[in-house]
Design a protein that fits this description.
The structure holds two protein chains of two kinds.
Chain A: H1 2-28, H2 33-58, H3 66-87, H4 95-111, H5 126-156, H6 170-203, H7 211-232, H8 237-256
Helix pairs in contact in A: 1-2, 1-4, 2-3, 3-4, 3-5, 5-6, 5-8, 6-7, 6-8, 7-8
Chain B: H1 2-15, H2 27-39, H3 42-61, H4 68-87, H5 89-93, H6 95-117, E1 119-126, E2 137-140, E3 153-163, E4 167-178, E5 184-190, E6 195-197, E7 200-218, E8 223-227, E9 241-244, E10 253-259, E11 270-271, E12 278-284, E13 287-291, E14 296-298, E15 302-319, H7 323-346
Antiparallel strand pairs in B: 1-2, 1-15, 3-4, 3-11, 4-5, 6-7, 7-8, 7-15, 9-10, 10-12, 12-13, 14-15
Classes of the chains: A mainly alpha, B alpha+beta.
Bound molecules: protoporphyrin IX containing FE.
């Protein structure tokens, strides 16, 4: 346990450095992109190692305790964002917003208890990985949309106009954020379907409005609402950005709030 | 170009503009078209999505009111969507988008059909005592028309291991079931795998326990066998008692299983098993007896012989013929949604 935690703290440190360098870069109008990418990749590699060590020790993946769920989500969100950072160089400055957002989860992870939990028999199925994996892609897509939306909102509020000038125009960021939401909708839909198949196998019902199912459905509705609102009212980028943040908040509560306040068997392991 | 055409189509639908040329002989049908256009409004869609969200929250908070808060917005959304399909040019130009939205409607219809014909139930089945189509609890849709009474299966025993701390691991339940041709088949079911017979799905649950089994011979010499399922074990470890009447008798027999050993030691890796050291306390009226396997007891109504203990397993029973169709509709919805966005996004880069 000691070793896997030590490796994890080094990974967290790498992420924090990546974030700090990204923020300082934007503030000073510099582009330390290679350093940020290298630090994010180093953090990911170390965190993968830490998760692997724990997986090997416990014989199951990071799906049970709050610590594990936070840890695996930090990993998947960082993977999603690092991929985008690498593939879409024009929006790299958004790291100055996304990484500080990640700090919240990193802080939470550091105070979560790393003890082990019980692995229920209903988790012995490939649907666990499919369901959870799809949910992680959804959250990753929304995180990127949130980063872009924050840039739009900051600009709209007249904050850091010059420093954010290296990013594309708001209309373009808005389009990219919309595309992230579209990808998010596809993966959220797939997650719900996979979850329903799993629930049917494990509990003999595909849908029962348990707290997690209810909240996940409401999240799905918020995405459908955002996409339709953008069409119906031809929303300006800042308004669309506000809706993207609302989706993120709902999704965040669904993924990290509901499973830990409800006492139903569907504890959620995303 | 395409964008401009699309916007026009949308703007019309969104504002619900109706063409009301009053001199037209087809005035009524034109008013009809106007109404459909109004119903097709995308702004209405937004309002209805919000309404559905409120309905979901309401249904969640009030379990008793699960139907109307969901059904009303869903019907309105379906009407809104069908009106849009009829009048909004976007759907004619974008087949994948059309297929996606139609798949949503099909899903809705299937869920409705499922709710009208489903069955949900529960039954405990004692080892080697055939299930004969009777459930101990059930609720069903008003149009449920399955052939549950013809379903036959036998619980042939199960195996469940426990990790320290009484943490239940995999459930493996051997069953035999009768096919429609009358032949019997063996199958192993468990956590992720139900028994499916005539569309009824039997899922093992964490409810299981012990069932004292008796032979009852009434005063006419008629012999029947019966068993009484005690409360679930280890969930109700300290209240292993139940009341029972032999089949065809009005005699009320109270039985209590007094176990003299630790069956599932929380400190060890163990398996669920029948107790070996126990006595069965039987109370009939004011008389109290202790019985061991093979013991008999004479009452005014007949003779009760205690044969021994067996296991019982609680099954959740579920019937919904729409399941494969729901899955198919979901697959169509997701594939067409992905196709729609793929086409849309590959046509133009985001930073064009
Ligand atoms: C509640 C479930 C619904 C979901 C998840 C959903 C989802 C979507 C999606 C993903 C698009 C594509 C957006 C784009 O291409 O930019 C779309 C477009 C559209 N939806 Fe829905 N929809 C739903 C219900 C409805 C309903 C009830 C209507 C009825 C009016 C409707 C009408 C439309 C129209 C007209 C478009 C075309 C917009 C365009 O591409 O210009 N949708 N919807």
């Amino acid at each position: 346990m000691e070793q896997e935690l030590q490796v994890l703290w080094v990974a967290v440190t790498a992420y924090v450095f990546a974030g700090v360098v990204a923020v300082v870069g934007v503030v000073l109008g510099k582009r330390p992109e290679r350093s940020v990418l290298a630090l994010m990749l180093a953090g990911l590699a170390l965190q993968t190692l830490s998760i692997g060590l724990r997986w090997d020790r416990l014989g199951h993946g990071p799906f049970i305790t709050m610590f594990e769920i936070l840890c695996s989500n930090v990993w998947s969100l960082m993977t999603a964002y690092t991929l985008v950072y690498w593939r879409i160089p024009r929006i790299r400055a958004s790291a100055a917003i996304v990484m500080p957002l990640m700090f919240i989860m990193l802080g939470w992870l550091m105070v979560a208890h790393p003890g082990e939990g019980h692995y229920p028999p209903t988790y012995n199925t490939p649907w666990l990985y499919i369901h959870i994996g799809l949910g992680k892609v959804f959250l990753g897509a929304v995180l990127v949309a949130v980063g872009l939306s924050c840039v739009i909102l900051l600009r709209h509020a007249g904050i850091g106009l010059q420093r954010l000038a290296q990013l594309p125009a708001s209309a373009q960021l808005d389009e990219l954020a919309f595309r992230c939401m579209a990808i998010g909708l596809i993966f959220h839909t797939l997650m719900l379907i996979a979850g329903a198949i799993w629930a049917q196998d494990a509990w003999g019902r595909y849908w029962a409005w348990d707290p997690l199912e209810t909240w996940a459905f409401i999240t799905w509705l918020t995405v459908a609402f955002t996409i339709h609102a953008r069409l119906a009212y031809r929303l300006s980028p800042p308004v669309h950005a506000g809706l993207v943040l609302a989706v993120f908040v709902t999704a965040f509560l669904t993924f990290f709030g509901v499973p830990f306040i409800s006492a139903t068997p569907h504890q959620g392991a995303v | 170009m395409d964008g401009a055409v699309k916007r026009n189509g949308l703007a019309q639908a969104a504002s619900g503009q109706a063409r009301t040329d009053s001199g037209d002989p087809t005035e009524r049908s034109s008013a009809g078209v106007g109404l459909v256009r109004r119903l097709a409004s995308l702004r209405l869609t937004l309002a209805l999505i919000v309404l559905l969200g409120v309905g979901v929250a309401f249904a969640y908070l009030r379990e008793g009111a699960r139907t109307w808060p969901l059904v009303v917005p869903l019907i309105l959304l379906a009407i809104n969507l069908m009106a849009a399909v009829m009048t909004n040019g976007v759907f004619r130009r974008q087949t994948a988008l059309l297929v996606f939205h139609l798949a949503l409607v099909v899903l809705l219809l299937l869920v409705a059909a499922g709710r009208l014909t489903y069955l949900n139930g529960y039954v405990g089945v004692t080892e080697d005592v055939p299930f004969e189509g009777e459930l101990s609890e059930s609720d069903r849709g008003p149009l449920h028309a399955g052939a549950l009474s013809g379903v036959r299966f036998v619980n042939r025993g199960f195996h469940i291991d426990y990790a320290p701390g009484l943490q239940r691991e995999a459930t493996r339940n051997q069953v035999a079931w009768q096919g429609s041709d009358g032949r019997w088949h063996d199958e192993l079911i468990g956590d992720q795998k139900p028994l499916v017979v005539s569309g009824y799905r039997f899922y093992t649950t964490f409810n299981k326990g012990f069932a004292p089994t008796f032979r009852w011979r009434d005063t006419h010499g008629y012999v029947v066998r019966g068993s009484v399922q005690l409360p679930p074990y280890p969930l109700k470890e300290y209240s292993q008692a139940a009341e029972w009447s032999p089949p065809g008798s009005t005699l009320s027999i109270w039985v209590l299983l007094d176990i003299d050993e630790i069956i599932l030691d929380p400190a060890e890796h163990t398996s669920f098993r029948l107790p070996e050291h126990y006595k069965l306390v039987v109370r009939i009226g004011r008389e109290r007896h202790e019985m061991h396997p093979g013991d008999s007891l004479q009452t005014a109504d007949g003779t009760l012989e205690f044969e021994g203990l067996r296991n019982w397993m609680g099954y959740r029973v579920f019937y919904d013929w729409t399941l494969p169709w729901l899955l198919a509709a979901c697959a169509v919805a997701v594939v067409s949604l992905a196709a729609h966005f793929w086409r849309k996004f590959t046509a133009r880069p985001w930073d064009a």
